[in-house]
Amino acid sequence: MIILLSPSSFLPLPVNVKTNVRFVYNGNMPKVSQQHRDARREQILAAARRCFLRDGFHATSMQDLFAEAGLSSGAVYSYFASKDDVIVAIAEENIRDVTEMIRTVATRQPGRPVGAVLADAMDMLRAKDAQDGFSKLTVIVWSEALRNPGLAARFTALVTQLHANLAEVIQQSQGNLPGDVSADVLATTLLSLVPGYLLQLALLGPAAVDGVPDAVRALWPGQPVRAPGPPGTVNP
User: Which residue in 187, 197, 66 sits closest to 128, CA to CA?
Assistant: First the structure.
């Protein structure tokens, strides 16, 4: 059977003709999960780390970050308003990583000497540096904080929080503190040692810090914790 179609069959419908097609919009955009947002944020920070290590902070532009991350400017700016915000985020992650390393080794065996805790943390920092250039990124953050008052203020707040966290960890090993040094003063001392370790690691390489953790263990060996003796006896 042959069906003949008239030319009018191909003409557009009149504007007053209703169709059965409807577009419904309820005003709600698809929700983005927190897991997706965290992954995207880390994608941007990972790209920034590569750019900063390769080209330095000042030679890296936001356009470089867009290209390195493979994202649009709008996508990046929805997480970070400026390059300063990016480097502050990297500083926050670095400080959080150092704190967690020290906390991890301190709680692994409660009562360990402070020197042993710090030495184990240094070993972990060296391993992390080999993985992602941790020490060089840390030095980049420090140098930028020296010339940028706004960044310096935010960085000072981060270091102050790190100091408080370290003092808390040290306080948990109070029985093994060297001499009569307070946890607060010892935390300040540790904050003086760790940057020097990272600076040498960044500028001179891993060979320059060989043996440093062992030296820290020797400097603060602590006192062995003796088991209590029978009732009526006094431990020497």
Answer: 197
Q: How many residues does the chain have?
A: 236
Q: Is 38 left (phi over 0), alpha (psi -120 to 50) or beta?
A: alpha
Q: What is the mean pLDDT of residues 145-173?
A: 83
CA angle at 204 for the pair 202 and 207, rounded to the nearest 5°: 105
Contact 141, 87 (CB under 8 A): yes
Residue ending a domain, choose from 81, 98, 118: 81
In this predicted model, what pLDDT tens digit does every residue of 90-111 receive, in sequence order?
988 888 888 888 778 877 777 7
Average pLDDT on 39-54 reads 95
- Residue range 82-91: mean pLDDT, rounded: 90
What pLDDT is stored for residue 68 in this prediction?
97
Which residue pairs from 184-189 have beta carbons closer than 8 angstroms and sit at least 24 positions apart in sequence? 186/114, 187/163, 188/163
Whether 188 is in a domain gets the answer: yes
Q: Which residue has the tokens 């203020």?
A: 153
Report whether 53 contacts 15 (CB < 8 A): no
Given a contact cutoff of 8 angstroms between Cβ atoms, the answer to whether 72 and 66 are in contact is: yes
47: CATH: 1.10.10.60
pLDDT the model gives residue 189: 85
Shared domain for 120 and 167, answered yes or no, is: yes
